Amino acid sequence: MPSTRPSKIPSKLPSASPSSVPSISPSDAPSSFPSITPSAEPSGSPSGIPSSVPSMAPTYESFDSAEELRNALFGTLGCCVECACDPDYNQAHDSESLVSQRYGHPAHTWDISKITDLSYVFAGYQGTVDLDLNGWDTSNVVESLLGAFSECEFSGDISEWDVSSVTDMSYMLWETTCCFASALNEWNVAKVTNFEEMFGFEVTIPGGIGKWDVTGNGAEGGVYTMFMFATAVNVPDLTNDGGWDTSNI
Hints:
This is (Lipo)protein. InterPro entries: DUF285, Liste_lipo_26. It comes from Seminavis robusta. By secondary structure, the chain is low in regular secondary structure. 8% of the residues lie in helices and 8% in strands. The termini are far apart.
């Protein structure tokens, strides 16, 4: 119990031993200098007030393989060749809206930087994919875009993809109904050595692809372009920006 007759001249030095019995009533003025040593046990009652300073870098979906990415896409968009579903479902829903509703943010925010192979990632989707995917970091796709958009309808934007490490684009747009939102003329395809049946059916690419370097960086054995435009209805312009150097085809 505190003294009923406190000293009129308080001590300059506090007591060496604090009270072993804490006050039942907390102080109205908490210390502005919190303890350096955190509590050994976390509070059983978390704060009801969130931090006033949110994280500067929100966490978005991250994928380690094309299979994970494909499952997320098809699970969200709702239809594919292999699954039994209502073929009109995805036609009645905007792709961007479906992704945003499920994940809270658009698909272009997804982190796919660990994926090295995007083969068949959209293949067989039975609807129109109109996603803006320019935010995807494709710089580590060092292997393949084989069949990436085959047998699907794609009208999204991938014009800013970094494909400088890709070596295989065969069947990429095979049997595809596709109208790209932006030109692909700036793609660096210098390392690609296989363009077999890349374009098929109705593929429209604004601006042509005459700027492409199809020399395969001088790859031994040359660049394989068999049936590259065999079934294409709309062959893209190959003559703009100087046209192709076909010396290694």
